[in-house]
Amino acid sequence: MNFKDKKILIGISGGIAAYKIASLVSRLSQEGAEVHVIMTEHACEFISPLTMETLSGQKCCTDTFDRSRPFEVEHIEVTKDADLYLIAPATANVIAKVACGIADDMLTTTFLAADCPKMVAPAMNTRMYSNQITQDNLDRLRKYEIEVIDPMVGHLACGDTGAGKMPSPEDLYAAMERRIARKKDLAGKRVLVTAGATCESMDPVRFITNHSSGKMGFAMAKECMLRGAEVILVKAATTATPPQFCQIAEAKSAEELFKTVKRLAVNADVVIMAAAVADYTPAEYVDHKVKKKDGELSVELKRTVDILAHIGARKRPEQFFCGFSMETENLIENSTAKLQKKNLDMIIANSLVDAGSGFQTDTNKVTIIRPEGVERCELMSKEMVAKTVIDRIADEING
Question: In 10 A of CB 225, how many CB atoms?
């Protein structure tokens, strides 16, 4: 519910992509947002204002001179206390008008009057989009701190293929979420997050791994991104979808993860090690498939590098390091010992014996352990766990 109690203005101009906005308006409304849709005259040719009114539960604004509410100046009233204004699709014509401050209909008038964060999602023919006039207009919007959501490359309604396709409602939602869902208490911070399960290869076919899906690490990375941090996500094997707006580095094995983290941790303000790293790896790698034979097979294993211990020993006083601990017994004692041994500022302890927590779940029940004490949390979604943990980290590093 990242948009609960937010007031969102959605401007729809006259492009075929207008139909895509219906699902976005519906999702925002279901999350508790107060959504007001403003449509141009041409937009009404592509999708009905009644559709938007039904999905938003609010009157759809189309007429600057609507006299149904005579004691309100509607184009001013609707913008009051707004948290965000998005124009999607934004045609070349509407982009040109708002870039020059022209206000000749309800959409452009409200956009000029609004003093909230603003975004536009261009959608048009690829040649119109690449035209230098349009690009200059987009640069003018950026100059005024209006965020431009870059269009996708794909097949366009006109039959051409190229840049100009409006992003999906899911991508628009993610961009809006990034802009206003959280306070930016990690702005200017560089955060390194690891996620997923390392894979230790025996031969070209087989490897040793664990059950980590990457969901918890991804939730941590996304939460930091929403709070304005520059996030570098080192991803091992995962089954979940990584968050948008994060720089992603791939690391398959424990050795690859170690080398990547060692290199990146030096310049990080915060390091969150949520990846499930193998403690052991095959002593030898065979470059051909090991054939099945009668009898037993023994695989000699060797210890992998303890990544957290290595970077923890080199941690600078201004850095904040957070680790994860997965235990089946003596949760607090074992995790506290790791906190101290690895020179961490925080460790998040998970117990596999607690229902709803651990690998492959959408929920988790964690204990936050710091040198000054222990905080036991209830069972929550992994997104809420991430929010809780990052709340504590932000409080620590911001003093």
Answer: 24
Confidence of residue 145 (pLDDT cuts 50, 70, 90): very high
Instruction: Supply the pTM of this predicted model.
Output: 0.92
Q: Which range among 61-70, 291-300, 347-356 shows the weakest confidence by mean pLDDT?
A: 61-70
Q: Which of 60, 116, 158, 246 is catalytic?
A: 158
- The C-alpha atoms of residue 281 and residue 255 are separated, in whole angstroms, by 9
Residue with token string 């690391």: 251
Name the one residue in this structure whose structure tokens are 């409080």: 395
Same domain? For 70 and 110 the reply is yes
Q: What is the DSSP string of 213-264?
A: -SHHHHHHHHHHHHTT-EEEEEE-B-SSPPPSSSEEEE--SHHHHHHHHHHH
Residue 89 preceded by cis peptide, ω within 30: yes
Q: Are strands 346-351 and 320-327 parallel, antiparallel or unpaired?
A: parallel
CATH number of domain containing 295 = 3.40.50.10300
Per DSSP, 289 falls in state P
Check if 158 is active-site. yes
Question: Could you tell me whether strands 230-235 and 190-195 are parallel, antiparallel, or unpaired per DSSP bridges?
Answer: parallel
For residue 111, the domain's CATH number is 3.40.50.1950
Q: What angle do CA 35, 39, 41 make, to 5 degrees?
A: 165
CB of 274 within 8 A of CB of 321?
A: no
